Amino acid sequence: MASSLDVNPEALPSPPGTIRPVTTPRPSLNEIYGLPIPLTIHPVPTFFPTNPLWLLQFAYNCVYQIFFSSSHPNPHLKGYFSLETRSVHITEESTTKILWQQGFFGKGSLSRSEPTWLNREMRKRGLLAKVTSEEITRKRREERKEFKKERAKKEREAIERRLKEEGKLPTNDAIKAQKDAKVLENGHANGIAVINENGGPETTLEDPLASADASVEGTRKRLGTDINGGLQSTQLGKRDAGAPNMAVRFSADFDLNQPSETEPAPPTLPHRSEVIENKEHLQLMLEEAFFLVYGLGVLDVVDPETHTTIPTPSLLRLFRHCSYFPPISTRILQPDDPFMLSYVVYHHFRSLGWVVRSGIKFGVDFLLYNRGPVFSHAEFAVVILPSYGHPHYSSSEVHKKETEAKEKRSWWWLHCVNRVQSQVKKSLLIVYVEVPPPPSYGDNESMKDQGTNDINALFKTYKVREVSLKRWIPNRTRD
Amino acid sequence: MTHPKPVAPDRLSDHLIPISLVGGRYLVFDIDVITYLRAQHHICGVLTGSIPHLPQQNVFLGIPIELMPEEVRLLVEKGVAFIVDDVAWHRKGLKELRDEDKNAFLQTLETRGWDAAKVAEQWAKERSENALKKQGMKIPTSAETSSPAATQEEVGSANKSDNADESLFFNSSPPQPPSPRGPFHRRAPTTPSSPHIITPTTSYPPLPSPQPTSLLPPVPPSYPLYAHLHSKNYFLSPGLRFGCQYLAYPGDPLRFHSHFLAVGFGWDEEFSLLDLVAGGRLGTGVKKGFLIGGLEPENEREVREGDGVKTFCIEWGGM
C-alpha cells in the first residue's frame, strides 16, 4: 500500500535506524477521505456572462469529459465472488484503497475494519513506525484497565485509612492477616464486623515482626495465583503499615501488571531488503458489492471459476440465494429474502448520504456513520424488521401464521438490543421494510417474475419506515 | 385490622397454598405466604401493589406479589400450591352461602365495627381534652356544646349507623340520609352511638376456603431452563430490565447481584446470531454472564439422568 510510506511524526519511538526519513507531512483526513463515493465529479466552471472566454472553457470541459474523462473508474473495479464466505473479495491493492478511502466499503480480512495487516506486519518487523488503529485501541484498553485497577486500589486504601483513623485496623498478627484477605473479599461492611470481633485497636504490638512477615508472605503466596492484582497490592500496603521496614514492595504487582503478550513486539533488526507479501484482501458484504454494482456502477463482480463478469440481474439472484443458509439454488425466491430486505435498507441509507457498515459487533444489522468511521463514532444502529402490511399476507391463515413468526419479536429481545446500544451511546433505529406481495399475487406485471431483469421496478415495490428508540428510565428522567 | 388468615403461618408447609388467578395474573396476597415462598422455595415474585390514592408512586410497591407462570407451574408441580380462579370461586361461594353463615359473618362485622367506633370515640375525646388543656380551658361536660371536631365525628358515626347492616355484597336497602340531630343530643363520649362500617378485605372467610384444583398454568417454552436453574438453587426473577428472560441470583436478590442473564430456547429453535452478540455484550457490560439453555430431546440425550437441560454461558471477548 502506498500509504505505508507515510510516517506519522507522533508515532511511538522506535530504535534509531528503523524509521524511514520523513519525506512528506501526512495528509489530513479530509484529503485522504475527500470523496464520499468512488465517483469523480467534474463541476461545470463558474458562469461568467461578461467573459466570452467562458464559453470556450465550457465547451472544452464538455468535450474533455465526454471523450477523455469519466466519472466512473475506467476500467471498472474488479471483485471476486466467494461463495464460502458469502462476500466479494477485492484483491488488488489499488482497488482496495479506492473502496476504503472513498466511501468506506468493505473490511480487511485480517483487520478490524481498515485493511492494515501489511502495516502492522511491517511495524512488527521494524520496517515502519506508523501506528495502526488496532494498536491505539489496544493501548487505550490497557490504559483503561490500569486506571480501573488504580481506582479500586485507591478506594480500598481510603477505606483502610478510614478504618485506621477509627482505630479499627487490625494488628499484624497471623490470624488477622488471614482474616484481612477475607475482609477484602467480602467488602467493607463485612470487614468492620469481622475486625470488631477482634477487639479493634492495636493492643498486641509486641508481636514478633518475623512471624508477621512470614504470615504476610504466606498470604501473598496464596494470592499469587489470583488475577486481582489490586488485592495483592493492598495486602502489601497493609503489611507496610504494620511493618514499615519492608524490603520488597509491590514486586508481585509489577509482575502482574506486565502485560507482556499485549504489548507490541519490540522491533527487531531491520531487514530493509525484505519485501512482505500482502496477504490481506478486502471483503465486501453482499449489500455493499451490489450497491457498487447496481447503485453506482463502478464494480464488476467476477465469478472465480469462469472468470467472467456476472451480469447484474443474475448477480441479484445469486445474492438472494446466498442470503439463506444453507444457500439452496432450487429455492424459489421470495419477496422477503434476507438480502432483499437488507439491501433495500442499505440502499436507502446510502442514498441519504450515510456511510453504512455492518453492525454485527453491536448485535444489529447496520451502523450508520455520519461521514465515516475515521471521523466519528456511529450515530445510529439499525435493526431491520420485515412488515407485512399488504392484504395478501392477511388473506389466509397460513400466510398470517408465517408472517407473524417472521415479524414477531419478544420484549426481552428489544430491551436487550436497546440496552446494548445505550451502553455504546448510539440510538437504536428500527427499520421496517414493507414487503410487497409475492409475484403470484394479482396481476401486477412488474412483479410477475421475482427474477425479473427489471431491477428498478422490483425495488420500487419496497417501502421503508424508520422508528427511532431510546432507553428511558423513569427514575433518572424524573423532573 | 387483623383478619383471620386462610392458612395459619406456622402450618404453611402442611397446607396447599392458594394462588389467585385474577385477570390472567397470578397473585399472592398473604404476607406470610409470600415470606414462606421466598424463604423455603426461593420464589420471590414481583411486588405490584400500589397505594390507591397515590398510584403515581410506582417505585416502591407493596403486596400483592405477582408470580410468573413459570413460578406458579413449579409450585404446583412440587405440590406446594394450587391455582384458584378467584372470580369463579367467589361467585360460586356467594351463591352457596347459607343464611346462618351470612348472619354470623355480619354479626362479627358489627362487633368489630362497635369496637372500632369505641376506639375512635375515645381517641376523639382525648384529642379534644388535650386541645382544651393546652388552651387552659376546662373540660366541657356532655351537656355543653361540643367542639366542632366532635360534632363532625358524631354526624359521621350517625351516618354510618344507618348503613351498618349492609355489607359489600348484600345490598339490601339504599342508604338513608342521616337523621337530623343536633349536637345537644349527644351521648356520653365513651359510648359511641353506632358501630363503624367494616369493609371486609378478604373473601375467605366469609366464603369457604378454596378447594385445591389440579389446574396447571400454561408456561412459555423456556420453562425447562427455569426449572433447571431453580433446581440449582438459583433465585430467578423476570429479567426484562436486563433484556433477558430470567435473572439468576445465587441467593436472595436482596443480598446478591445476579450472576446470569438467562434466555431459554427450544432445542431446535432457530435464532439469530445477532441475538447472541447483543446478549453477550450486554451481559459482559453489566458484569454478568449471558446464559442460554434448552431442553435436550429424550432420544438425543447422551446421559439419561438429570433434567436434560443444557446451558451455555457466553461472554463478550472484545478482541
From TrEMBL, chain A:
<dbReference type="Pfam" id="PF01974">
    <property type="entry name" value="tRNA_int_endo"/>
</dbReference>
<dbReference type="InterPro" id="IPR011856">
    <property type="entry name" value="tRNA_endonuc-like_dom_sf"/>
</dbReference>
<dbReference type="GO" id="GO:0003676">
    <property type="term" value="F:nucleic acid binding"/>
</dbReference>
<comment type="similarity">
    <text>Belongs to the tRNA-intron endonuclease family.</text>
</comment>
<dbReference type="InterPro" id="IPR036167">
    <property type="entry name" value="tRNA_intron_Endo_cat-like_sf"/>
</dbReference>
<feature type="active site">
    <location>
        <position position="369"/>
    </location>
</feature>
<dbReference type="InterPro" id="IPR006676">
    <property type="entry name" value="tRNA_splic"/>
</dbReference>
<feature type="coiled-coil region">
    <location>
        <begin position="133"/>
        <end position="169"/>
    </location>
</feature>
<dbReference type="GO" id="GO:0000214">
    <property type="term" value="C:tRNA-intron endonuclease complex"/>
</dbReference>
<feature type="active site">
    <location>
        <position position="426"/>
    </location>
</feature>
<dbReference type="GO" id="GO:0000379">
    <property type="term" value="P:tRNA-type intron splice site recognition and cleavage"/>
</dbReference>
<keyword id="KW-0175">Coiled coil</keyword>
<keyword id="KW-0456">Lyase</keyword>
<dbReference type="InterPro" id="IPR016589">
    <property type="entry name" value="tRNA_splic_SEN2"/>
</dbReference>
<protein>
    <recommendedName>
        <fullName>tRNA-splicing endonuclease subunit Sen2</fullName>
        <ecNumber>4.6.1.16</ecNumber>
    </recommendedName>
</protein>
<dbReference type="InterPro" id="IPR006677">
    <property type="entry name" value="tRNA_intron_Endonuc_cat-like"/>
</dbReference>
<feature type="domain" description="tRNA intron endonuclease catalytic">
    <location>
        <begin position="339"/>
        <end position="433"/>
    </location>
</feature>
<dbReference type="GO" id="GO:0000213">
    <property type="term" value="F:tRNA-intron lyase activity"/>
</dbReference>
<feature type="active site">
    <location>
        <position position="377"/>
    </location>
</feature>
<keyword id="KW-0819">tRNA processing</keyword>
<comment type="function">
    <text>Constitutes one of the two catalytic subunit of the tRNA-splicing endonuclease complex, a complex responsible for identification and cleavage of the splice sites in pre-tRNA. It cleaves pre-tRNA at the 5'- and 3'-splice sites to release the intron. The products are an intron and two tRNA half-molecules bearing 2',3'-cyclic phosphate and 5'-OH termini. There are no conserved sequences at the splice sites, but the intron is invariably located at the same site in the gene, placing the splice sites an invariant distance from the constant structural features of the tRNA body.</text>
</comment>
<feature type="region of interest" description="Disordered">
    <location>
        <begin position="1"/>
        <end position="25"/>
    </location>
</feature>
TrEMBL record, chain B:
<dbReference type="InterPro" id="IPR036167">
    <property type="entry name" value="tRNA_intron_Endo_cat-like_sf"/>
</dbReference>
<dbReference type="Pfam" id="PF01974">
    <property type="entry name" value="tRNA_int_endo"/>
</dbReference>
<keyword id="KW-0819">tRNA processing</keyword>
<keyword id="KW-0456">Lyase</keyword>
<protein>
    <recommendedName>
        <fullName>tRNA-splicing endonuclease subunit Sen34</fullName>
        <ecNumber>4.6.1.16</ecNumber>
    </recommendedName>
</protein>
<dbReference type="GO" id="GO:0000379">
    <property type="term" value="P:tRNA-type intron splice site recognition and cleavage"/>
</dbReference>
<comment type="function">
    <text>Constitutes one of the two catalytic subunit of the tRNA-splicing endonuclease complex, a complex responsible for identification and cleavage of the splice sites in pre-tRNA. It cleaves pre-tRNA at the 5'- and 3'-splice sites to release the intron. The products are an intron and two tRNA half-molecules bearing 2',3'-cyclic phosphate and 5'-OH termini. There are no conserved sequences at the splice sites, but the intron is invariably located at the same site in the gene, placing the splice sites an invariant distance from the constant structural features of the tRNA body.</text>
</comment>
<feature type="domain" description="TSEN34 N-terminal">
    <location>
        <begin position="17"/>
        <end position="86"/>
    </location>
</feature>
<dbReference type="InterPro" id="IPR006677">
    <property type="entry name" value="tRNA_intron_Endonuc_cat-like"/>
</dbReference>
<feature type="domain" description="tRNA intron endonuclease catalytic">
    <location>
        <begin position="222"/>
        <end position="295"/>
    </location>
</feature>
<feature type="active site">
    <location>
        <position position="249"/>
    </location>
</feature>
<dbReference type="InterPro" id="IPR011856">
    <property type="entry name" value="tRNA_endonuc-like_dom_sf"/>
</dbReference>
<dbReference type="InterPro" id="IPR006676">
    <property type="entry name" value="tRNA_splic"/>
</dbReference>
<feature type="region of interest" description="Disordered">
    <location>
        <begin position="127"/>
        <end position="212"/>
    </location>
</feature>
<feature type="active site">
    <location>
        <position position="288"/>
    </location>
</feature>
<dbReference type="GO" id="GO:0000213">
    <property type="term" value="F:tRNA-intron lyase activity"/>
</dbReference>
<feature type="active site">
    <location>
        <position position="257"/>
    </location>
</feature>
<dbReference type="GO" id="GO:0003676">
    <property type="term" value="F:nucleic acid binding"/>
</dbReference>
<comment type="similarity">
    <text>Belongs to the tRNA-intron endonuclease family.</text>
</comment>
<dbReference type="GO" id="GO:0000214">
    <property type="term" value="C:tRNA-intron endonuclease complex"/>
</dbReference>
<feature type="compositionally biased region" description="Low complexity">
    <location>
        <begin position="189"/>
        <end position="202"/>
    </location>
</feature>
<dbReference type="Pfam" id="PF26577">
    <property type="entry name" value="TSEN34_N"/>
</dbReference>
